[in-house]
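Q: Structure tokens for this one, please.
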Amino acid sequence: MKRLNRSAAFCLSFIFIFMLVSEKSAHADWFDPLTIHFLDVGQADCILVEAPNGQTMLIDGGDEHDGEEIITYLKREGITHLDIVVASHPHHDHIGSLDDVIRAFPVSVLYMPNLPYDTKYYHDLFRVINEKQIPVDRAKAGVNFKMGFSVKVEMLAPKASYYKHINDYSAVIKIKHGKKNFLLMADAGAEEEKEIINRGGVRADVIKIGHHGANTGTTMEFLRKVKAKTAVISVGKNNPYQFPSKEVLYRLNNRKMTIYRTDQMGAIIATSNGKKILFRTNVLH
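A: Here is the predicted structure, written as tokens:
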């Protein structure tokens, strides 16, 4: 009986140790860094996400003549493969050079909203997609995937099948890393913001402001729901639209948010360890 008890105790101890080791192993990359690069591509958008497990996601590809700069930046970061590419919506300042970028790197999957668009940029993008036989999935609310153990990606929009404004077809992406959340708004406007609020789960620590800071969105109601402390604005220096708008800047300052702008600071790099987010900038002007 004593021998049996000793054997049982040994087995229980072994199981307990195994569970501890397994749990530690499962959480080993929990606080490894997630890095999000908001590239300086002038009056356009391009975001690179590097997950702790080495997976990469590129959201948008700048305007027509940004391809060489984006490719150089990615190669400098050691990128050799893009696991996920998102074309948030088909405006030229988001997909203008995406064809050049995906021609330069292998791509596992590309997400885009269901919005055919009769422009040269759109047709050039699909020509390369077809040439390289890249799988295309629909970007829409409810799409979820992981990038390793610690990074969860969720698309909060678009939800509806029709919008009055093309910008409201934008793929809005929330990235969760540990206790920290990033909300990437592409060019989403007020209509899509209301849709996201109604859906819930919008709180974030960092918000990439929609439509380069235009007063088509970033409503005070939305900012109150998001509760972000930091705003990133991808915008061109001395742009003819005078973005970001005074109204949006007023709302951000009213909320006492820290503001990072690519026109003033160059590329903006956010690094999260799951508990804290650190920012550094790369002034290129």
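A few notes: The chain has nine helices and 15 strands. The longest helix spans residues 2-26.
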